Amino acid sequence: MTDADATAADAAATDVAADQSKDDVVLRVEDLQKSFGALTATDHATFEVERGTITGLIGPNGAGKSTLFNLVSGFYEPDGGRVEVNGTEVTGMEPYEIADHGLIRTFQTPRKLEGMTVREAMLVGPRKQPGESFLNLFFRPGDVGEHEAANLADAERILEEFEIDHLATQPATKISGGQMKLVELARAMLAEPELLLLDEPAAGVNPTLRNKLAEQIRRLNEQGTTFLLIEHDMDFVMKLADPVIVLDQGSVLMEGTPQEVQTDERVIDAYLGGSP
Amino acid sequence: MVFDYLASGLVFSSIIVLGSIGLSLIYSIADFANFAHGDTMTVGAYAAFVTFGAVGGLGTSVLGLPIGFFVALVAGIAVAAVVAVVTEKVVYDGMSAGSIELLITSIGIAFVYRAIIQIGFGADFTRYEVQTLRPIEALLPYGVRVTQHDVAIVLSALVLVGSLHTLLQYSDLGRKMRAMADNPDLARVSGIRTDRVKLWTWIIGAGLAGSGGVFLGLYNQLSPRMGFNLLLLIFAAVILGGIGSVYGAMLGGFLIGMINQLTPVLTELGALLPLVPDSFGIPIGIEYANAIAFVIMVAVLLVRPNGIAGEAT
Amino acid sequence: MRVLSDPKGYWADLTRSEQGVVAFIVAFAGLLLVGLLTGALAPTYFLYLVGLAGMYALLSFGLNSQWGFTGLINFSVAAFFGIGAYGTALMSASSSPIAGDLLPIVGLVVALVVAALLALAIGIPTLRLRADYLAIASLGLAEVVRLVVLNERQFTNGSAGVRGIPPFFEGFPVLADLPQMMPGLAIRPLPGTTIVLETPFWGALLNVVVVLGFVGVSYAVLRRAHRSPWGRVLRTIRSDEDLARALGKNTYGFKMQSFVLGSLIMALAGVFYAHLNLFVSPGDLDPVTTFYVWVAVILGGSGSNRGALFGGFVIVGIREGTRFLNEFAWIPIDVAPLRLLLIGVLIVVLMRYRPQGVLPPQRELIWPKVVDEAPDRPDSGVREAKVGGGDD
């Protein structure tokens, strides 16, 4: 895809909700629907995430961003539509099966792991550890130990890259909210995702740490991880993400570059109090 | 025979319904499975026992029950409610714990209630000092052996459940309770004073449980274990009806109570159903009546975890 | 052993509550020793108590690996215990209505298989759901198991119970006849007291060997499991199941493994009990046993194996201690409701004021060989103060 094509594609995206011309799609969401009783949370949402991007997902409160995350990652079962990760349909699968296809997510409120140190909490991250099989603990202890050592080294390396290695042996419950967000991101990276869904990574994080977080996301993106992130902090998302998808009342309102989104009338209307 | 089982099923159902409504309300609004709910019924029964012993018959009687018994019933309801509210304020309220920790605490509370009653009244069975009645003559030709007391239980339960229905449908408090039972977070956001609603939930839930306990004592006997023994049935009713649904709890309670009393019929199903050979039957003794409720509960959890009245997901 | 080489340093490294526990254990052991030496406590009875304590420790291990590790609420400890006891009794006892006279080791295997199947049967419908469903369903399961044992006379002898259970080592070479072969010994530990050790004593001693074996193996298995990635997933599920799911863990499978493992250990306790008591009856399935074990686990510290061990011993203290209350005439009430009250109050007070128990897990739980390469004591560890010579 040449630059000119990309521009053309972006321009087209302002008119069509879902841009069908992306050539390397890691996540495809088609006509996804979910309602809770009378409330329609996701209303025929369709969009794609291209490999190698940091895609932002924004929308006013109640637009259905979190529901969409839960549907995509397998925490909710959709009423209709389909989800594809890396070309495989994962609709209705359990979260762990979807994770096996390379999709990992984080949560809006940092989850506390009682009684663990930061590096212990980090060690939950790696997938398919031999030590997660009960029998291996007794029949292949050497293997378990080797992987544990390697994972611990990885964890400590990532903590170092995130410049929070001094927290490694702190209780996971006694670090600040911002540090917790960093640890969550670091732990999710240990699961080696191809696509990482971040639910409000910057919420409750002080400006200094927020910059650090943005820096890390950009660095990891350059190393090959695709990101899809929900964010309320417009400044944060507009600096980081391209393209940005706007969600309103459960469906995709538009998709475009940060500039396009910021100047689009429909987006402004949606944020100013719902569409007419 | 079947009519007789149906009649006693109706009486027993009334008691289960009174227990399960409160359990379901507390489950959804206070957000934990209250394992002390059965023993709250026991508290009501014994409070009525003491009151009735103190006030006596007070003259005239209705449906074979002296007025004093109805005074005792009110006392049983009141004491159960007060005990539950005090427990809530002293124990649960101050805990910064999740629903699981509250659940475990509630089983400790259940033991405390039961132990205190057992210390006070002994482990043996007792009865209310009311005259044992003969079955109503007019119904005997149909094979139905119910006493006026049984009729009184069903009618009182109907009155209580009817009042609850009115409260839920037509009062401000009732609407808030239903909203909170449906979705506690949403209710909190929309400005409902959840503390007040919670308090009333405990009062109503425990009060109904207390009345159920009094009727259980009248229907059978009183013993310190009476409520705990019923707990499984009440939970089965609540799960069958769908946690958080008051009307589901009523329906679930009704079904579980009926099935429980109809257990003997299962062995002779063939004789009752058309198109089925007479020899057909599910050979299960009445000693397994509670086990049937358990099997139903597990089946519901497998097929429809949100209950028959809940949303299927 | 650091306790012996550097007792002062060992003591100083303990937390306050650990010091309390050590002091308690020392005082209690001293009391028992005095009892033994003066003849007030018969050696055979003492060994019986040790056996019971081991049995409760096993039950606590089982519950700890369900509730303490994973946060699964199992209210049918008594049922799994009963399955273990009846499983082996019905295989090996002379009065068994179905099999009988088989080797106790066969009984052990049968009991464990049945317990595992039962755990699967109750786990399948409930473990996909919120944690409280397992609590409710397991309470029901306990009742159903009790009803079946009580009413299916043709299989279980009903309320009469099963008699004629052989000792655990029946059929083993040497060990089976050891108690009879051992000579009677008379010991005079203090002037004026004589203790005679005869066949029952040696039999009881063998029982203690059995239970120590069971406890030792279970402890070793659980300790390794607890410090492994497997245990870490369980602990993550306990804190936040959604997080574990998001990180790609099949939480249903892990919960099932944890539930079955715990149930097997509980059944093991039942197997031991049957060969200790040589008689089982439906009374042994009394649901109150379940809640003794709950108190033991919460008191010891949910998630802590040594806490469960400690809790198990305390429970025997409570059970056997309150037995003597009956002998004081000035207490006019029955002991049963007092015990119930004590259990209830303990559960409420612990959950309200000290939910972490007396000996909560202390150390970082990382695979041993890996963490040994790291500094022995993290400069600022899981707990602020110190990391003792203890284990998990």
From TrEMBL, chain A:
**One annotated Gene Ontology cellular component of this protein:** plasma membrane
Signal sequence annotation: none
Q: Report the InterPro entries cross-referenced here.
A: AAA+_ATPase, ABC_AA/LPS_Transport, ABC_transporter-like_ATP-bd, ABC_transporter-like_CS, BCA_ABC_TP_C, P-loop_NTPase
CDD domains according to UniProt:
ABC_Mj1267_LivG_branched
State the Gene Ontology BP annotations.
amino acid transport
Q: Name one GO molecular function term.
A: ATP binding
Query: What keywords would UniProt list here?
Result: Amino-acid transport, ATP-binding, Nucleotide-binding, Transport
Q: Which SMART domains match?
A: AAA
Residue ranges of domain ABC transporter in the record: 27-274
Name the family. Answer: Belongs to the ABC transporter superfamily.
Q: What function does the entry list?
A: Probable component of a branched-chain amino-acid transport system.
Instruction: Show the PANTHER family listed in the entry.
Output: CONSERVED COMPONENT OF ABC TRANSPORTER FOR NATURAL AMINO ACIDS (PTHR45772:SF9), CONSERVED COMPONENT OF ABC TRANSPORTER FOR NATURAL AMINO ACIDS-RELATED (PTHR45772)
Protein known as:
Probable branched-chain amino acid transport ATP-binding protein LivG
Species whose genome carries this gene: Haloarcula rubra
UniProtKB/TrEMBL annotation, chain B:
Q: Does the keyword Cytoplasm apply?
A: no
* Primary localization class, coarse: membrane
Q: Which GO terms describe its molecular function?
A: L-isoleucine transmembrane transporter activity; L-leucine transmembrane transporter activity; L-phenylalanine transmembrane transporter activity; L-valine transmembrane transporter activity
Q: Where in the cell is it found?
A: Cell membrane
Residue intervals passing through the bilayer: 6-29, 41-59, 65-86, 151-170, 199-219, 231-260, 280-303
The record, for CDD domains, names: TM_PBP1_LivH_like
The GO cellular component terms are: plasma membrane
Q: Which residues, if any, are the signal sequence?
A: none
Give the family this protein belongs to, as stated in its UniProt record.
Answer: Belongs to the binding-protein-dependent transport system permease family. LivHM subfamily.
Q: Mind telling me what this protein is named?
A: Branched-chain amino acid ABC transporter permease
From TrEMBL, chain C:
Q: What is this protein called?
A: Branched-chain amino acid ABC transporter permease
Q: Which organism is it from?
A: Haloarcula rubra
Question: Entry's Pfam families?
Answer: BPD_transp_2 (PF02653)
The keyword Phosphoprotein is assigned to this record: no
Q: Which domain of life is it from?
A: Archaea
Keyword entries, A-Z: Cell membrane, Membrane, Transmembrane, Transmembrane helix
Q: Where in the cell is it found?
A: Cell membrane
**What PANTHER family is this protein classified in?**
HIGH-AFFINITY BRANCHED-CHAIN AMINO ACID TRANSPORT PROTEIN BRAE (PTHR30482:SF10), HIGH-AFFINITY BRANCHED-CHAIN AMINO ACID TRANSPORT SYSTEM PERMEASE (PTHR30482)
